[in-house]
Amino acid sequence: MILWLLFFIFSILLLYFHNRRVISHKNLEKSSKKSLFVIAHPDDECMFFGPTITYLMKNHVEVNILCFSSGANDMEKRVRKDELYRSCQELGINQNYVSLLDSSIFPDNIKTFWPVIDVAAEIENHIFRNGIDTVYTFDEGGVSGHPNHISLFRAVRHLLKCSEVATGERTCFFFYLIDTMSTDKAK
Ligand SMILES: [Zn+2]
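^ thats the input. predicted complex w/ zinc ion below
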């Protein structure tokens, strides 16, 4: 029993590290054509992923944004939605490739973890509908420890595990993480 448990834990760890790639412009997939940045809030795209998005745009990679929440109330939602679209415009991202969800399942809240299955379903939908080959999101620490950010990491990890189990093969998309509070690996 203990041996099976150890084997299971080892398999999960192997799967996780096999797919995980920390963002470094040197090791980004050269073959990537369509990337997806999974973010929790408007401003995440420039605050955490700005340099990577700029690098990809320069290298003619299509950049898609999937943002899960827009704000706590109607007024904030209007302002932040506008900010997101203008920020993406500054980064050179086609407005048609920016998706902003507005669901009570994903509240903008510093104390709330979002349901993994629901987040994963939205991401999976987006990947297959748009032919995404590379996904970027937060790591397990959410960079700032924000539960909304961490929920995105957990959902992508869930997707990776499910697709590996279903196909028995390597997953069909690459997965990059922004590294919490560390710049060592980006050098
Ligand atoms: Zn955020």
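Residues 10-20, 181-187 have pLDDT under 50 and may be disordered.
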